[in-house]
Each structure stands twice: as C-alpha cells, then as structure tokens.
Amino acid sequence: MDPVAATTLPIPGLLLAGSVAALAASLWLLLPKTSDTVNSRRLGFVLGAAALIGFAATGRSLGGVGEDAVFLTVAGIAVISGLATIVTRSPVYSAIWFAMALAGVSGVLLVLGAQFLGVATIVVYAGAILVMFLFVLMLAQPSGMAPYDRVSNEPMLAAAAGAVLLGLLTLSIGRLSAAEPPACCRLPSRAQAMAAAPTEGAGSEDDRSATLLAPATAGVESVDADEVAHLGAELFGRHLFAVEVAGVLLLVALVGSIAVVSRGEATETDHRRESR
Amino acid sequence: MIPATLLTNALLVGAVLFCLGLVGILTRRNLIVMFLSAELMLQGVSVTLVAWSRYHGDWGGQVLVVFVLTVAACEAAVALVFVLQAFARTGRLDASAWQALREENLPRVIDHGLPADDRVVPSWPHLSPAGVLPEGDDSRSLERDHV
Predict the structure, then answer these.
(1) Residue A172 falls within a domain, yes or no?
(2) A53-104 per-position pLDDT tens digit
(3) Which chain A residues are Cβ-neighbours of B46 within 8 angstroms?
(4) Can you give the three-state secondary structure of B44-103, one letter per residue?
(5) Residues of B numbered 54-113 whose beta carbons fall under 8 angstroms of chain A's beta carbons: which are they?
C-alpha cells in the first residue's frame, strides 16, 4: 500500500494501539492465574470495558456503529459474554456464558438479515450442543474447585497474541473500506448486476416457482420475505451433494461416538475384573 | 443486501469473537472450556461469512454456515465422547493430564504452587430447615459445595 493511502486510513492509529494494549492487559488480568486478587480482576474489568469502547469507537470511525442501537446491543452482548466465557473459572458458568454469547450472535445474524441462521443458531447450538456440554459437565465434574481451572497456560503471551491479532484484523477491515475504489470505476458486484437486470414479475404461481428454482436471482431486495425459501432452494439445488455428504457425516459421527463409548466401557469393566 | 458500514461492523464483531476464542483455547486447560472456545471461534467465522453473504447478495456464505453448524454438532458429539473417556481414565478434565504423550525433547508442564486456601467461598442462599429431617446421611457425600 502506498504511503498516501496509509496516511488516509480511517482508523486513528493511536486509538487502535491503545485499545489493543488495554485488551491485552485486561485479558491477562482476567484469565485465571495463581496470583489473582479481587483488585486485579476489578482492574481487568475496567480495562476490558475501556478496550471494548475503544474498538466500538474504531467501528464508529469505520462506519457508524452508533446509528444502529440494536446492532450495538446484540454485538455488545455477544462480545462481553464471549469474554466471560473464557475468563470464568467454573466450567458450568463458562457454558452458561457461552449460551448468552450465542444469543448475542443470533441477534447479530438477525440484524444482518439471515433469519434462518439466527434461529438455527439458537436451536442447534443452545438447544442441542450446549445441553450436551452441560450433560458431560454433570457426568465428569470432579468434586472441589479443580486446580487446572484456576491456572492457565501462558496467559500473558496468549493475551498479547490475541490482542495483536485482533488489532491486525481491525486494521485490515479498515483498509478494506478505505481501499474501496470510487463508484465510477468499481466492478459491479453480483447483487448490483442482478438489481440492474430487469426482474420478472412475480405475480403468478409459475413465476414464483421459477424464482425459487433459480437461486442466482435471490437476495436482491433489501428485506427478503422469502429468505428461508431462497436458502432452501440454494441448499437443495446447487449444494445437494454437499447436503448428502453432511448427512453421511452425521451418521458416521453418531455410529463412531456410540462405538467409542461402548468400547471404552468394555475396557473399563475388563480393568476392574483384572484388578479383582 | 446490507450497507458497507454494517458489513464492517459485523466483520469487527466476528474478529473479536474469533480472537477471544483463540485466547481461550490457548490458555485454558479444562478440556470442555477449550471446546467451548473452539465453538466461539466458529461463531466468529459464522458472523463473518453471513456478513459477506448478505453484502454480496450471494447465498454461498449462508449455505456454508449451515454446514458449519452440521460439522460443529458432529465435532461436539465425538469430542465429548473422548473427553468422557479421558475423564474416566485420569479422573481429571485437565489437558496436561495427557502430557506423557508429548515429544521427548519438550519440557514437562509443572503447575506453580496454588495458594492454599484463598478460595472465595460463594455465599449461597440459606434456607431455613422446615419439616422433619430425613434419615440417613449417605447422600451427603454426593452433594457438591459448588458448581
């Protein structure tokens, strides 16, 4: 990138550097360590709030996050709950915070206009996967606060690495919007080309089925009333083979997990018999 | 179609979730919390994919997220089975309980000494006893003092 573009970056570099440093320090203070005190955790919370506000400010300078209060709310829920997921000591609370983060992510997907995926995230993740996690926690929870939940591996290095990676990603997202060419010489995206193309009238039933069967024309309008229908047409039209492969994958995972469980139980009883 | 400002903000949220999951999977030692962190990374990638999909008006990203959901379900099922097996063998959910499987030239992870009894005892709600005290204290050993 030439120096002119670098100087006209939409992100103030000092703000971004400060946010990265605050996020690294906050993660390091909040992650489970041997030398934790109440005050260090409080300082970590304060620094984490400062880092979040800094990143939200970079988002505002990128686009205008303050305009959309709903998006800001659900994104805040997702990010704060994600942070709490990785810093909470008790794994049960961690799972509960992850459910909260899923609710936030689902809200973000709804704001983005992906209604089916927003609902499917709640149903599949929070309803099935998370309940499975909680069952395993119930089966495999040792009594007493486990020492491995109170000590983490290399918290300082990992926090610095994560914060620096986030800073780099933010920088590249900012360059993405900065490097956008002016409208005169921009290649039209596929959706714009579709919007420019004359659309057929969707009056009769035949036209409706024709649009359903031609998923390339889907997703033109800003508010998509037939979002699920279009997604289903795309999924079972162009990606039918992948759907079949996913079905086989689910079956293999089912059979494999049952086989591992039954084999493991057999060896456990064998061990017990031998020890007797 | 979504505006470019919403795209960048959604990409930012996805990046934050991905980085938080990365830090979690690097630092935490509980196997289940490590898997939760991996799921957090998947969520970040899903948000990014949906944002690009909506921006370009293309359904490919959302279809990919459907497959991400499928693979996450399979992964969680198989992984949790292995976590249960590991717990049955070692009695711990610790990832470094399996450090005997490391390379020969790598050092051993040694826990620093934990402070003995600085655990903050949570204040659970206290219910005043009512009715007859049930006989038998055998179930007392199965109770946990925390979650």
Answers:
(1) yes
(2) 888 777 666 555 555 788 888 999 999 999 999 998 888 889 999 999 999 9
(3) 105, 109, 117, 121
(4) HHHHHHHHHHHHHCCCHHHHHHHHHHHHHHHHHHHHHHHHHHHHHHHCCCEHHHHHHHCC
(5) 54, 56-60, 62-63, 65-67, 69-78, 80-85, 87-88, 91-96, 109, 111-113
What is the secondary structure of B94-143 as a DSSP string? BGGGGGGGS-TTSPPP-PPPPPSS-PPPP-PPPPPP-SPPPS--GGGGG-
Residue A179 has φ and ψ, to the nearest 5°, of -85, 5
User: B136 to chain A nearest CA, in Å?
Assistant: 21
Residues from chain B contacting residue A108 (CB–CB below 8 Å): 10, 13, 47
Q: Does B39 touch chain A (CB under 8 A)?
A: yes
Task: Please name the member of B10, B27, B71 whose beta carbon is closest to the beta carbon of A108.
Answer: B10
What three-state secondary structure class fits A79? helix
Residue in chain B closest to A240 (alpha carbons) equals B63
A207-237, pLDDT tens digit by residue? 444 444 334 444 444 556 788 898 999 999 9
The residue ranges of every structural domain in chain B are 4-91
Closest Cα partner for B143 from B119, B118, B124, B120? B124
Name every chain A residue with its beta carbon within 8 A of the beta carbon of B37. 85-86
Please indicate, yes or no, if residue A192 is contained in any of the structural domains: no
Long-range CB pairs of A35-38, under 8 A, 24+ apart, other chains included: A36/A150, A38/B120
ipTM score here?
Answer: 0.80
Top residue of A257, A260, A269 to mutate, by most chain B CBs within 10 Å, is A257
CATH code for position A171: 1.20.120.1200
The total number of structural domains that make up chain A: 1
- By residue range, what is the domain housing residue A70? 3-178
pLDDT tens for chain B, 147 residues long, are: 777 778 888 999 999 999 999 999 999 988 899 999 999 999 999 999 999 999 988 899 999 999 999 999 999 999 999 888 888 888 888 888 888 788 888 887 776 666 554 555 566 677 777 887 767 666 566 666 555
Global pTM reads 0.79
Q: Is residue A266 situated within a structural domain? A: no
Q: What is the fold, at CATH topology level, of the domain defined by B4-91?
A: Helix Hairpins (1.10.287)
